[in-house]
């Protein structure tokens, strides 16, 4: 059942922070559903320029000299690797191994029909990376369903962050299948709320179906903006709350607590499109669609935001 689907090219929301005004860009008549949206190669590259503006530059230089990972999340108190473990555990409480294993395997094997359906949308969004983005960060990379879209971008380096360490083997496999050389893909166990990269260090950030699961949406979006270089882009696909008063929204409200337990903290009723719009990106191109293979994980906002 398709509740609503807009073709990939029709942005229903396009904002420019020059004016801080939200402007409908093209006809949103299709959008009766909601009146507004929803309602060491790698470390070496990322450490190359320790341009962190958080005032801990000397510490970072010392730390990165001995560590494979560049350090500088705004949340870390002293930027030591043990801070990352502490932040990781504080933001997302540790889960038993069997749960992490199970969830990673569900993501790796259970999303195929959805991925097929959204492929045309993703192809169009990821085309924005061509020729412009050498360093890409993916937050909540999971089993790596987006890695195939990076194929053909010669020299691209992809840095995947996810708190579930069990995702790594699937993400690595996906990177290999996408033809990414092993040295061009790095996986780091971390959370979006404290991204272990310096300020303005990546050309693009990708996040698909992840802001539903993070503990703090706004903190994660601030981190996305922080690590993006000026002009860099944030590609997103996020499922959001259905319109109030609809049957779908009723189902979401009922299932939300259970979903958080069985699906690793996934929330069904967030209004993530609004969080993205309010983060202060210079431009946000935001679209909305529903997918028959996503059941009550609908509608979804997708698009590109520019720092
Ligand atoms: C629904 S899955 C989506 C995975 C992948 N992006 C995709 O499109 O299939 C949500 C992912 O977010 C990760 N995650 C959960 N909490 C997170 C956090 N605080 N920061 C970053 N990722 C998180 C989960 O481990 C999981 O891999």
UniProtKB/TrEMBL annotation:
Top-level division of the source organism's lineage: Eukaryota
Gene Ontology MF term list: methyltransferase activity; S-adenosylmethionine-dependent methyltransferase activity
InterPro entries recorded: Methyltransf_11, SAM-dependent_MTases_sf, Thiol_S-MT
Methyltransferase type domain ranges (all copies): 137-236
Gene3D superfamilies: Vaccinia Virus protein VP39 (3.40.50.150)
PANTHER family: METHYLTRANSFERASE LIKE 7A, METHYLTRANSFERASE LIKE 7B
Protein name as catalogued: Methyltransferase type 11 domain-containing protein
């Amino acid at each position: 059942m398709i509740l609503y689907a807009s073709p990939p090219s029709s942005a229903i929301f396009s904002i420019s922070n020059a004016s801080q005004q939200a402007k409908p860009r093209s006809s949103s008549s299709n959008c009766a559903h909601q009146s507004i949206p929803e309602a060491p190669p790698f470390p070496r590259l990322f450490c190359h320029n320790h341009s962190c503006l958080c005032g801990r530059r000397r510490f970072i230089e010392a730390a990165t000299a001995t560590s494979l990972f560049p350090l500088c999340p705004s949340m870390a108190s002293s930027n030591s690797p043990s801070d990352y473990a502490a932040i990781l555990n504080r933001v997302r409480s540790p889960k038993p191994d069997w749960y992490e294993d199970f969830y990673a395997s569900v993501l790796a094997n259970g999303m195929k029909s959805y991925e097929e359906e959204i492929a045309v949308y993703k192809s169009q969004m990821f085309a924005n990376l061509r020729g412009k983005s050498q360093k890409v960060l993916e937050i909540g990379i999971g089993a790596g369903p987006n890695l195939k879209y990076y194929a053909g971008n010669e020299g691209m380096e992809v840095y995947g962050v996810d708190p579930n360490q069990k995702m790594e083997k699937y993400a690595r496999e996906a990177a290999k299948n996408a033809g990414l050389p092993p040295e061009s893909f790095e996986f780091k166990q971390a959370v979006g709320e404290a991204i272990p990269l310096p300020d303005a260090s990546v050309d693009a950030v990708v996040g698909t179906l992840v802001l539903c699961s993070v503990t703090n949406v706004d903190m994660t979006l601030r981190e996305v903006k922080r690590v993006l270089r000026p002009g860099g882009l944030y590609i997103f696909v996020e499922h959001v709350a259905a319109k109030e008063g609809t049957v779908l929204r009723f189902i979401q409200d009922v299932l939300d607590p259970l979903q958080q337990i069985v699906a690793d903290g996934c929330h069904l009723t967030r209004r993530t499109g609004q969080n993205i719009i309010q983060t202060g990106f210079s431009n946000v191109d935001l679209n909305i669609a529903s997918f028959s293979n996503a059941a009550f994980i609908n509608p979804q906002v997708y698009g590109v935001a520019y720092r």
